[in-house]
Amino acid sequence: QLLNSLSAESPRSFDSYKRSTPSLAFIHEWNAEKLTRFLSRCMPDEVVAYLRVVPKMADHFVSLCPPMTAELVRDELSRNDGLKDADKNRLLTQLSLRLKEMVTRGEANLDDVFPAASATPVGGHLKNVA
After folding, report:
1. Does position 4 have pLDDT exceeding 80, yes or no?
2. Phi and psi angles of residue 83, each rounded to the nearest 5 degrees, phi first
3. What is d(CA 88, CA 55) in angstroms, rounded to the nearest whole number?
4. What distance lies between CA 87 and its chain's CA centroid?
């Protein structure tokens, strides 16, 4: 959460970090297609652990999970959080390792996920009104 907060305050200084270092701190910024691919490889308890820490992402993440995973995650999130901090840390570490593994295997390209600011063509954000 700290990295995410710092990134929000100074986004340009974190661009290179995001493109070079797989981190759960920025996973919520992934587009739906890439996040769906990542979540399809995750275990439900790993997703639950992440959503217990970042609850505002629950609806979005659950909507992108495979149906069975989504059902299990929804069911678990509807209950009180009985998971110990040590168990959450273990599950988040596993989730982080999955992310790093995807990037290492070339199944997720962080340059595509977080394109450099200069990758946008000059005027690319403007509409052609001619």
Report:
1. no
2. -75, 130
3. 14
4. 20
